[in-house]
Amino acid sequence: MTFSIVARDPGTGQLAVGAVTAMVGVGKLVPHARARVGAVATQATINPYLAYHGLQHLDRGDDALTALQRVLDADPGRDFRQCGIVDAAGGVAAWTGDQTPDWSGHITDSDVTVQGNRLVGRETLEAVLSTFHQRDDLDLAWRILEALQAGEETGADKKGALSGAITVVDTEDYALWDVRVDHADDPVAGLRSLMEEFEEQLLPQVRKLSTRDDQEGPLAREQGASIA
Q: Quick check: 10 pLDDT over 80?
């Protein structure tokens, strides 16, 4: 039982999913993203194939709305599902089945969709969306974090929160950011702490990894130069 945000940064083309839930390990099942293809959150009574097949449809050229309709048409359990999709062009689509726990719903906007179930009310999603738009001075990962924090401050999930995750993809098959708190009293605070450490210690290394167009990669060249 979760609230989440799926978004695209039109300036960089980065795609992201952020989620917080009352169960453990939200990062395992809810967030899915593929660079320059799209991003998906699948939640409530989770069907991971809404994301797997949805991303396949996007990769074949469908927009978010068409991809979502295709996966829902193939799912007899759609009434128990919740899903949000953003495609690489910024198109959005979302679904909330009528058998998802109250309060449940979604809000879509250009380049972003927010969705949640078993929430205190619509105000959680409104806070997430509003903060996301207000913090456009930040990189996408940090905008997602601030949006999740705003949602938590409304009371969010009626049963509290245990886990949180933020995934951001840029140009490569591997994620630029993949930060998860699997079990904590305050998972958003845990995400913030991890992201600060990640940004200082790991992100510079990720940016120097091999790429599709540069198989050697800056990190290997640096290491070779230091040995020489």
A: yes
What structural domains does the chain harbor?
A: 2-227 (3.60.20.10)
Is residue 6 within 8 A of residue 120, CB to CB? The reply is: no
- Tell me: pLDDT of 207 over 70: yes
Buried b (16+ CB within 10 A) or exposed e, 43-75: bbbbbeebbebbbbbbeeebbbeebbebbbeeb
Q: How many helices (H) and strands (E) does the chain have?
A: 8, 10
**Separation between Cα atoms, residue 112 and residue 100, nearest integer Å:** 21
Structure tokens at 132: 């996301």
DSSP H helices, the chain, are 26-29, 48-59, 64-73, 122-134, 140-152, 187-197, 203-206, 218-227
Burial class of residue 110 (count of CB atoms within 10 Å of its CB; 0-12, 13-18, 19+): exposed
- Output the pLDDT for position 227: 61
Spatial distance between the Cα atoms of 205 and 202, rounded to a whole number of angstroms: 5
Q: Residue 7 and residue 76: Cα distance in Å, rounded?
A: 27
Helix (H, G, I), strand (E, B) or coil at 206: helix
Q: What is the pLDDT of residues 160-179, one digit of tens each?
A: 899 999 999 999 999 999 99
Mean pLDDT estimate for the chain: 96
Does residue 103 have a cis bond before it (omega within 30 degrees)?
A: yes
How long, in residues, is the chain? 228
Please check the confidence at residue 81 and state whether its pLDDT lies above 70: yes
Percent with pLDDT over 70 in the chain: 98
